[in-house]
Description:
The strands form four sheets. Strands 1, 4, 5, 6, 7, 8, 10 and 12 form an eight-stranded mixed beta sheet that branches. A three-stranded parallel beta sheet has the order 9-11-13. It has a two-stranded antiparallel ribbon with strand order 2-3. It starts with a strand and ends with a helix. It has helices at about 10-20, 25-45, 80-90, 135-150, 165-170, 200-205; strands at about 5, 50-55, 60-65, 70-75, 95, 100-105, 110-115, 125-130, 130-135, 155, 160, 180, 180-185, 185, 195. The longest helix has 19 residues, at about 25-45. With about 210 residues, it is an alpha/beta fold. It has a single domain, classed as Rossmann fold, CATH 3.40.50. Bound molecules: 1-O-pyrophosphono-5-O-phosphono-alpha-D-ribofuranose (PRP) and uracil. Uracil binds near residues 200 and 201.
Amino acid sequence: MSNLFVSDHPLVAHKLSLLRDVHTEPRKFRELVRELAALLTYEATRDLALRPKPVTTPMAEMTAHELVDQVGLVPVLRAGLGMVEGVWELMPSAEVWHIGLYRDERTLKPVQYYNKLPVAPTVSICLILDPMLATGGSATATVELLKKWGVSRIKYIGLIGAPEGIARMQAEHPDVPIHLAAVDERLNEIGYIMPGLGDAGDRQFGTA
Ligand code: PRP
Ligand code: URA
């Protein structure tokens, strides 16, 4: 069974079209990234475990449910930052652990510049948040960091993936489900996703 899940939700398709549009301004772009992150996470967390929880309603006592897992959100700086708020709306008690990576423009390899993970893991499942899965270098590096940290249950939530990056993730980390809004055609000669949406970090932060 494939570990790639591409949303077929009409709201996702509609919002992604707006996000791709070159005329979409940073403010609207950030709003769309936030909304898309929430919609994709809603789908990606369908299999989270529940345990029974007694609740007293105004009418009666009953057995309801609560989430078992302590969830960690792992945004990859910079572009993953914009996805956090949308997911936090759904899971306010999730911990957020930032990872700073940038792609060396020449080699396209990820360079790590921020990581404050404590020695022992504090969460039982991590959701990696990063809009763009291009060569897959940043995604695989982040998964490796989290596995070394001691977390084995990891999901990747992105917006657009290139076939190259998806294939790399599936080869190196077949245990990590990949949730995306779309799979695009290819990478261009400088490692950008085509047709993609340009530079997700620059478009969010107005630094294009
Ligand atoms: C972008 C994106 C991913 C990475 C994907 O970040 O947010 O982290 O590129 O490319 P890859 O799959 O080839 O590794 P970028 O390096 O541009 O940094 P930024 O978010 O700080 O702009
Ligand atoms: N990072 C981006 O922001 N966009 C791409 O197309 C590839 C990597």
